[in-house]
């Protein structure tokens, strides 16, 4: 069995005006973002802001990308083919010759794509073929499948099965993580933009949950959020993509049977909220 590639999802930009709306259909299929792994999100805001300062897009777009935990990646427009600048524009050393705090002049770079941040801390576990494992351990053991809801499952008609793993993803993170504790004793630790499934089938960011909110479990039962805490965390965070492009088959099972979304929910389907869903399917408008 060959090991899945440890990669980061990529959003390819069609044009400047379509920075947010016209993203590549399957951004997780390539490895272009993995060079950002050592830098982490501390570079995200100044990098995105510099693109706005250079009028590559409005400041409102920079603010939105930063709020969604995405970093815009640029390329060197002065070179044939516009090779990607492998470090964020605000990093101390750039691979194309800019050193110290010097940034490339605005006219010398262009937009290449957008990279998302990841979600799970290394100790958080998901269900893999009957066994709860951290994503780090599942990657190390070359897990071939991950447990998801079945195609056609709804918030009132549950069912699970195994889906082939397309990729594991990992990236450096430096910021707050949220610990959700339920009245049933479940505990989940994720970044604030991670998708969690509420009792009515709506998918919302973990950072938008409140004590008293009800979460859906793989059995169809309900677990109420009894406590929420945050802590500062600096280190790798992980995510995973099943190969399936069906929404139910991208709802994963985490500790104690709570339901959570894959990387596709965090990124691509956030843009599609309310547009691609059936009435009885999982609603991602809360993302």
- Global structural class: mainly beta
Tally of discrete structural domains:
2
CATH class call of the largest domain: Mainly Beta
- What is the overall shape? elongated
How much of the sequence lies in strands comes to: 25-35%
* CATH architecture name of the largest domain: Beta Complex
Give me the Rg, rounded: 19 Å
Helix and strand succession? EHHEEEEHEEEEEEEEEHH
What is the count of helical runs?
5
> What kind of oligomer do you see?
single chain
What is the total tally of β strands?
14
Mean pLDDT: 76
Question: Tell me about the biggest sheet?
Answer: 5 strands, antiparallel
Which residues form runs of ≥5 with pLDDT under 50?
1-30, 92-100, 271-280
**CATH H-level superfamily title of the largest domain:** Hedgehog/Intein (Hint) domain
Intertermini distance:
35 Å
Q: Report helical residue fraction.
A: 10-25%
CATH topology of the largest domain: Endonuclease - Pi-scei, Chain A, domain 1
Give your account of this protein's structure.
It is a single chain. The protein is mainly β. The chain has 2 domains: 11-116, no CATH class; 125-271, Hedgehog/Intein (Hint) domain (Endonuclease - Pi-scei, Chain A, domain 1), CATH 2.170.16.10. Helices cover 11% and strands 33% of the residues. It has helices spanning 44-53, 59-67, 135-140, 263-266, 268-271, and strands spanning 11-12, 70-76, 109-116, 125-128, 131-134, 145-149, 160-182, 187-191, 195-197, 203-205, 214-216, 222-242, 251-253, 259-261. Helix 1 (44-53) packs antiparallel against helix 2. The longest helix has 10 residues, at 44-53. The radius of gyration is 19 Å and the shape is elongated. It starts with 10 loop residues before the first strand and ends in a 16-residue tail after the last helix.
